[in-house]
Amino acid sequence: PVPAADEEEDEEDFDSRPSSAAPVDILDTKRVQGLRNIKGTSAAQVTAVGAIGVAGLITGHKDGSVRLWVKGKQRSDEEGIRLGRHDGEVTSLVVVGRHAFSGSIDGSVRHWNTLKELCVGMLPGHVEGVTAMCAADDKAASPEPTILAVAARDGGIRLWFVDREDYACLGIIVCPEPDTLITAICFDPDT
Fold this sequence. Notes:
4-stranded antiparallel sheet, 0% helix, mainly beta
């Protein structure tokens, strides 16, 4: 609640920690209880999260780092396995099987192999900051390769085959409205 104009705020009622130091809670949705939390430092504010099966998480951070959290490998007070980093804040993460893709405000998209714990490539061609990503990955319904869609600040969406080592760009969809910022994208599962 907002205090009335004639009331004084009691500063001790507020958490004075900067939001960048807040932990990420891992919840068990079946039991509706907290399992553990991931504590970060002020330089490691979590900006994006992706689930890797039932065994772990991959997190992107404000400082550009990408970290892997594997069940049983770290204590909750550890920083996770640092896979690498972007030159700018991580804005989006997509997980496809054992692979993850992170997009950054610096315009880069990195491909991570979570089993090998390393960056295996970078998708070229993005000039402006990545704002959103999604993947069409339905191996059970279709033998087609996985397609990754990446939106950037320029209002364009690049489509990529990501099952290939050469990262073939299928094309670019340009938003017809100038100065449009795309903040979320998804594939229609029925098409």
